[in-house]
Amino acid sequence: MSLALSVGLLAAAGTFLLLQRGMIRIILGFVLLTHAVNLLIISAGGVARRDAPFIGGDTSMAADPLPQAFVLTAIVIAFAITVVMATLAIVSRDDDDTELDTQTENESDTEQNNQGSGSVAERGESA
């Protein structure tokens, strides 16, 4: 039960961070989602069987090595993708203007409101 809650919490937090605007938040959201998927794959391998894969003799309680191999591969792939995303975030730091767009739009709206708020006599219009 706690494993399912952990997967759900990590997936929800990862999705929330992926929907944010900052590149660092997107990277952190991706990392949280990969952790959630890794936990999901491990839980699919059977939570009750957590013994060593090869102890000898009785193999009925041995852990399934296939989900562990999948998770190990997923960890390596996720780390590589995270490094690429972090590199792109650093290289394109000056080009990432998504956060600046909202500030620029707010400033231009404020300037237009300040310019257009004068009286009719100040603007030179007739009433």
Structural commentary:
The radius of gyration is 26 Å and the shape is elongated. It has a single domain (2-49, 63-104), classed as Helix Hairpins. It is an all-alpha fold and 127 residues long. The model has no long low-confidence stretch (mean pLDDT 80). Helix 1 runs antiparallel to helix 2 (23-44) and helix 2 (23-44) runs antiparallel to helix 3. It is built from 5 helices and no strands. 69% of the residues lie in helices and 0% in strands.
List keywords for this structure.
Helix Hairpins, 5 helices, 127 residues, mainly alpha
* CATH architecture group name: Orthogonal Bundle
Low-confidence sequence ranges: none
Q: Please, what is the average pLDDT?
A: 80
Total of domains: 1
Question: What percentage of residues falls in helices of 4 or more residues?
Answer: 55-70%
User: What profile does the largest beta sheet have?
Assistant: none
Q: Class in CATH?
A: Mainly Alpha
Structure described in brief:
The chain has 127 residues and is an all-alpha fold. It has five helices and no strands.
Task: List the topology elements.
Blueprint (H helix, E strand, L loop, with lengths): L1 H17 L4 H22 L20 H27 L6 H18 L4 H4 L4
Helix pairs in contact: 1-2, 2-3
